[in-house]
Amino acid sequence: MKHTVRILQIVVFGTLLLSIVSAQTAEPVVARDSEEPLIFDVQQYNSSWIVGDTSGDGQTDYALKLDDQGQKKYEAVDYNNDGSMDNFYFYRNGVLHRQELDTNHDGSVDLWIFMHDGVRVRAYHRDTNHDGTADLIREFGDA
Known about the structure:
The chain is an alpha+beta fold.
């Protein structure tokens, strides 16, 4: 019995230690870098962007910017075809790092999704009352 309690203590301590180390080495969640574009108006995309009309209605609803190595850097999509971009994707070395969405189509981002390795959601921040500040925050870590 005493041996079992000691093993349990070691397992709990090891798990706690791993959690602390993971939290300290995890990349911090940052809402945005000021130099990254967030362009809602589809007319503002210049010749450095690849633009397209995926819905076939004659309006730009997709924009892509590549980095110097030809990898994705930024993407913008007008999902509801109202003429205003509402989903923005940010890449690092061609890997999806963050997504920002205007879920209620008012011209302001209200959902930030942070990715780990471009596949798993690391965290999300949500502005539920649409005042410009995230008031619902969930973080899941790197695992």
